[in-house]
Amino acid sequence: MNTTTRSPRHLVWPAFLVGALLLLGAGNEVLYGIAVPAAALALVVAVPGPRPRLARHPDALDLAVVAGCYLGVVALFWLAFRVFTQQNTLGLFLCFASGMVLGVAGPVVYTVWIRGRSLSALGLRRDNLGRSVALGVVLAGVQFALTLWGYDLPQPVDWVPLLALALPVGLFEVVFFRGFVQTRLETAFGSVAGVGGSAALYAGYHVGYGMGASEMLFLFGLGVVYAVAFALVRNVVVLWPLLVPLGSFYNNLQGGGITMPWAAILGFADVLALMFAAVWLAARHERRRDPGAPPQGPGSRRQQSEPRAPSPDS
User: Fold this and answer.
1) How far is the C-alpha of 55 from the C-alpha of 185, rounded, in Å?
2) Alpha-carbon distance 118 to 286, whole Å?
3) Of 80, 81, 174, 196, which alpha carbon lies 20 to 30 A from 168's?
4) What's the whole-number average pLDDT of the chain?
5) Under a CB-based contact definition with an 8 Å cutoff, are residues 98 and 280 in contact?
6) pTM of the predicted structure, to 2 decimals
C-alpha cells in the first residue's frame, strides 16, 4: 500500500479515538453507546483501504476457552458483588480477586502452555512500545482533562485505595477482553466482529457488578473505543497502566459507593503480583521453549504460525 493511501487511515482512527473520548463530556450514556459504535462502523465502510475479511475456519477450542473463562469471570464477579456484597468482605474480596486472576492467568496459561503461542498474541509485547506509549499517553491525557483535571479529591483514605483497586482491575480487563477475547474473536470471525463482540462481552460482564441496561450500553461504546485502540497497536500498554485504570478510578470516585480501608491496598497489590507472576512464568517458559527466538514480538517462530487478524488501519 502506498504512502498516500496509508496516511489518511493512520490519522483517521486516532482522531476517532480522541473524538470518542471527547464525547464523554456530553454525559449521555445512551447516546454514547449508540453513536460511538455507529461512527466506528461508518469509518470502516467509508475510509479507503482493504475491507475487513472473515475467517473461514474458526478454532473451536479457542472459542470454547473464551466462553468458559468469560462465564467463570462473570460468575465470580456475580458472587462477589451480588451475593457476598460488602456485608461479607472476605467472600467479596476472594471472589473478586479470583475473577481478576482467572482473567489474566487463564489466557496466559492457555496461550503459552496449551497452544504454544507467544505472549505477543495477547498484546504482551515490547517491539512497538514507542507508538503504543505515545497513543496511550495522548488518549489518557484527553480522558484526564475531561474527568480528573481540577477534580476535588476527598480525603486520601477515600481515594488512594480506589486508585490501587483500579490498577489490577484495569490489567485484568485489558489482558482478558483485548489481548484474549478480542484477538480470538478477530482470528475466528474477522476484525469487525472481534471489535464489536469483545466490546459487547466487556459491557455484558458488568452484570456481575449489578449495572443496568443504560450503563452497559454506555460501556459497549467505551468498549469499542478500547478495542479500536488495541487493534491499532496490538500492545496492552496503549490501555494500561493509564487509560483504563484512570477511567475505572474516576467512575469509582463518582459512584461513591465503595469504601475501603488502607489495608485493602495490600490485597490489590497481591492480586497484581499474581498477575505479573503468571506473565513472568509464561515468558520464562517461552524462552526455554524457543531459545533462539525473541521473547516477544511478531518475528518469533510461534507468532508467525499464528494468523494475525487485520486491525482497523491495516
Assistant:
1) 10
2) 7
3) 196
4) 89
5) no
6) 0.91
Query: What value, to the nearest 5°, has the Cα angle with vertex 67 and ends 61 and 68?
Result: 85
Per residue in 11-48, pLDDT (tens digit) is 899 999 999 999 999 989 999 999 999 999 999 988 87
- Amino acid at site 237: V
pLDDT digits (tens, 9 = 90+) for 64-113: 999 999 999 999 999 999 999 988 999 999 999 999 999 999 999 999 99
Cα 119 to Cα 39: distance, rounded to the nearest angstrom = 32
Amino acid letter, 290? D
Name the residue among 168, 60, 189, 161 with its Cα closest to residue 105: 168
Q: Give the C-alpha separation, 252 to 162, whole Å.
A: 7
Q: For 199-236, what is each residue's pLDDT tens digit?
A: 999 999 999 888 899 999 999 999 999 999 999 999 99
The grid coordinates of residue 41 equal 462502523
- pLDDT of 153 above 70: yes
